[in-house]
Amino acid sequence: MKLRFILTVALAIVVGVNTTTAAKKKKTSKKEAKVEVVKPDTVSVDAFSYAMGIAQTKGLKTFLQTNVDIDTIKYINDFVRGMKDMQEKMNDPKMKAYSMGLQIAQQVFGDFPQRINQQITGKQDTTFLNLEEYKKGFMSVMTNEPLPLSVDSASRLCQKQMEYYYNEKLERDYGQNRKDGEEFLAQNAKLAGVKTTPSGLQYEIIKQGTGPIPQKDSQVKVNYKGTLIDGTIFDTTEGKTPFQTNVAHVIKGWTEALTMMPVGSKWKIYVPYDLAYGNRETGKIKPFSALIFEIELLEIVELPKSNPTAPATK
After folding, report:
1. Which residue from 96, 117, 187, 261 has the highest number of Cβ atoms inside 10 Å of its Cβ?
2. Radius of gyration from C-alpha coordinates of the chain
3. What is the pTM (predicted TM-score) of this model?
4. What range defines the domain where residue 216 resides?
């Protein structure tokens, strides 16, 4: 059974980890208010590391008052010795505190810094986080030393920093995709028959239909093929049944195009990354990728209307 100490820094945007929320403090000192306005790009690694150490204590003192399960066994002899010591001193509060300290230290000073380094640099064996400052911040709270900022303030600072580092890493890893897409769209806009909307969406009419035009809340049925700007096909309905969807439940580029297309039309659309998947990665589509779609609008699907006056069925 794993130790259930919940690390509290809000990193959900990076790894999807849920964060714990604490009750808002009724009073905020002027000193803490200054911390809130610090811009992420002006925070030093040392200051970030120290704040991260403080932030990791959030909820810990409460946690130490609850029951804790024993974590994975790594060294059987030490485990057996620990079991014997605990058996002899089962009711000794010092032994309980020491045992919990060992378990928590494994997470706080072992696993967690590696995960932070992985998220910021892409490698666990890097030393981005200043471990000494991180430990200093953590231990300052546990030993009740005066702090330059509260635990809640440190948590908010670290959340902003992680967002900043995350975006920096995305730019390093995938920024070229955006540049390539912008260059492609700039050249593509010059081609005959290609039109550009104010949002930056480009489209080319292959066949113009004469049917009705969908609204944003319409349900439609389409055939399509999606490619990257290098021609790589990442999705298609070819050989499959047509794709049915709500016009508002697709990427922005699709929504805009579909609300301009009469039924029976076949268009080729060129979608900037910010009207596609943005900085997200999905399958063959990397962050900041411009996309190309051939879309054939087959029909607007009329969904059965519910009868609000119909009696409930038991």
Report:
1. 261
2. 28
3. 0.66
4. 189-301
